[in-house]
Automatic annotation (TrEMBL):
Keyword Lyase among UniProt keywords: yes
GO molecular function: enoyl-CoA hydratase activity
PROSITE patterns reported for this sequence: ENOYL_COA_HYDRATASE
Tree of life domain: Bacteria
Gene3D superfamilies linked to this entry: 2-enoyl-CoA Hydratase, Chain A, domain 1 (3.90.226.10), Lyase 2-enoyl-coa Hydratase, Chain A, domain 2 (1.10.12.10)
Family under the similarity heading: Belongs to the enoyl-CoA hydratase/isomerase family.
One Pfam assignment: ECH_1
EC number(s) per entry: 4.2.1.17
Residues of the signal peptide: none
Keywords associated with the record: Lyase
Protein name per UniProt: Enoyl-CoA hydratase
Keyword Lyase: yes
Matching InterPro entries: ClpP/crotonase-like_dom_sf, Enoyl-CoA_hyd/isom_CS, Enoyl-CoA_hydra/iso, Enoyl-CoA_hydra_C
Length: 258
């Protein structure tokens, strides 16, 4: 399917989704978010996709929500349309792992979009920020909640109140990103991580997503029980038998998602 604001390629069971509004540094307008929702839903439903990589350009993953598009909107406009509510839901509904590969600016909604992915691999050129304060607003796609959980209150407050940017090294040190690589290696690294995930049992990768994400929603006791029940449930699968037999027989497992 052809998109106006995205380029989607599927290879070796990985869907690579590139944000593609170069003139606006991939600012998130309604069209882009709608198309991204469609692309994620399509990837989630496609048997030829087992992992998704979301990326931008060398200069910007995304420089935030589209300021031109929203500047004249009223409270009634944004409240009644639930701006950034419904059109970011597909990201949360996607059951396949999503890796954000971030180079350049990931600001405002761009940083929030990266944080909605399952993990972030950053180029050494990446810059993260929540500069909405400079526009007289606050983050609107989860920045105050997710960034605080990832990097803690002190850094989150600093970022949201001053609007300063965090470089890749600080982002890795703070727990916002999982790895930092030279810019030229960003996509190879993200695609290699994605391909590694495609080799696993999809039942287990879905369970990992559910369990890790649950840790943000519940108490430790409930989370531990949720995890243990998922662990128990996977003993009902052929992939558990295959994975453990393969280990004992010193061979690679052949998972069948059953
Ligand atoms: N929305 C719309 N257009 C944007 C944009 C945005 N968020 N960010 C950049 N652009 C556009 C610029 O207007 C410019 O377009 P024109 O050439 O037509 O003027 C083009 O992209 C290139 O940008 P710059 O000339 O500004 O590039 P630069 O290299 O000098 O600066 C930058 C790069 C520091 C990222 C700067 O563009 C910038 O500060 N952008 C805005 C960042 C921001 O405030 N993001 C938060 C948005 S609000 C939000 O996201 C709310 C939310 O949580 C939901």
């Amino acid at each position: 399917m052809a998109y106006e604001t995205l380029i989607v390629e599927i290879e070796d069971y990985v869907a690579l989704i590139r944000l593609n509004r170069p003139d606006a540094l991939n600012a998130l307008n309604a069209k882009l978010l709608d198309e991204l929702g469609d692309a994620l839903a399509a990837a989630d439903a496609n048997d030829k996709v087992r992992c998704i990589v979301l990326t931008g350009s060398e200069k910007a993953f995304a420089a935030g929500a589209d300021i031109k598009e929203m500047s004249e909107k009223s409270f009634v406009d944004v409240f009644t349309s639930d701006l950034f509510g419904a059109n970011t839901e597909p990201m949360l509904r996607c059951r396949k792992p999503i890796i954000a590969a971030v180079a350049g600016y990931a600001l405002g909604g761009g940083c929030e979009l990266a944080m909605m992915c399952d993990f972030i691999i950053a180029a050494d050129t990446a810059k993260f920020g929540q500069p909405e304060i400079n526009l007289g607003v606050v983050a609107g796609i989860g920045g105050t909640q997710r960034l605080t959980r990832f990097v803690g209150k002190a850094k989150s407050m600093d970022m949201h109140l001053t609007g300063r940017f965090m470089d890749a090294a600080e982002a890795e040190r703070s727990g916002l990103v999982s790895r930092v690589v030279p810019a030229a290696k960003l996509l190879p690294e993200a695609m290699a991580a994605a391909r590694k995930i495609t080799e696993k049992s999809a039942l287990a990768t879905m369970a990992v997503k559910e369990a890790v994400n649950r840790s943000y929603e519940t108490t430790l006791r409930e989370g531990l029980l949720f995890e243990r029940r998922l662990f128990h449930a996977l003993f009902a699968t052929e992939d558990q038998k295959e994975g453990m037999s393969a280990f004992l027989e010193k061979r690679q497992p052949q998972f069948r998602d059953r």
